[in-house]
């Protein structure tokens, strides 16, 4: 089995350097698929991205919707998906695509310019600093704790082939929250009260995101094991220990 997680994450990074994002997320995935086929790998699980859906008004996002990528990152991740989907029929390599919705958890770096919002917010709260919210804070996301992602990968590996290989499955929590409300929860959990600062929206970001989990529930038996609140506390505990 190959579980292909490698990528250059971040929409903002892809806008700044689209070539590097393409080389890693699209060309790199094709290289991995070819290598897996040549090595006789049984099944290849690809870490896709909910960014493939783009800024469509329909919620929740389901796998049969037309894709509408809005950034080089989203385009490159979608290209990786499409490469993965042609390999079963053409080369006999079983593949499964998992579209991740805003993954978070321990070991995410809060210090990078391209860091995800949750480690940035928790780090700011622990240091007593105001975080920066891009846009008005009303944008919503389906934040998904990493343990849920691990569970989905294992199910994608070991579920029988029928109705699985060559398919795309959303992986999320199935609940959405605004960035402003996310900051409020983190403040409450950590016992701080700090007004956030606001900056212009980032290029390529979508307004709203929420996973429809019907297909992965029916096809792989997936359900989110860790809720958003539990995941935030576990992530905060890890960052406190650094």
TrEMBL record:
NAD-dependent epimerase/dehydratase domain: residues covered: 1-172
Gene3D superfamilies noted in UniProt: NAD(P)-binding Rossmann-like Domain, UDP-galactose 4-epimerase, domain 1
One Pfam family per UniProt: Epimerase
InterPro entries to which the protein is assigned, alphabetical: Epimerase_deHydtase, Lipid_A_modif_metabolic_enz, NAD(P)-bd_dom_sf
Stated name of the protein: NAD-dependent epimerase/dehydratase domain-containing protein
Origin species: marine metagenome
């Amino acid at each position: 089995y190959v579980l292909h997680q490698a990528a250059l994450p971040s929409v903002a990074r892809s806008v700044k350097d689209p070539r590097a994002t393409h080389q890693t997320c699209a060309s790199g995935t094709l290289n991995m698929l070819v290598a897996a086929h040549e090595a006789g790998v049984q099944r290849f699980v690809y870490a896709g991205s909910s960014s493939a859906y783009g800024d469509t008004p329909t919620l929740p996002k389901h796998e049969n919707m037309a894709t509408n990528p809005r950034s080089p990152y989203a385009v490159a991740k979608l290209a990786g998906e499409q490469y993965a989907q042609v390999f079963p029929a053409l080369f006999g390599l079983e593949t499964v695509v998992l579209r991740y919705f805003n993954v978070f958890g321990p070991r995410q770096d809060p210090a990078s310019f391209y860091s995800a919002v949750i480690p940035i917010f928790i780090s700011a709260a622990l240091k007593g600093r105001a975080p920066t919210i891009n846009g008005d804070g009303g944008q919503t996301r389906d934040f998904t704790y990493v343990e849920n992602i691990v569970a989905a990968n294992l199910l994608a590996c070991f579920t029988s082939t029928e109705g699985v290989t060559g398919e795309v499955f959303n992986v999320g929590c199935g609940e959405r929250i605004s960035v402003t409300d996310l900051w409020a929860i983190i403040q409450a959990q950590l016992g701080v009260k700090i007004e956030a600062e606001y900056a212009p929206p980032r290029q390529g970001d979508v307004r709203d995101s929420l996973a429809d989990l019907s297909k992965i529930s029916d096809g792989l038996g997936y359900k989110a094991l860790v809720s958003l609140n539990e995941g935030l506390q576990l992530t905060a505990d890890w960052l406190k220990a650094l």
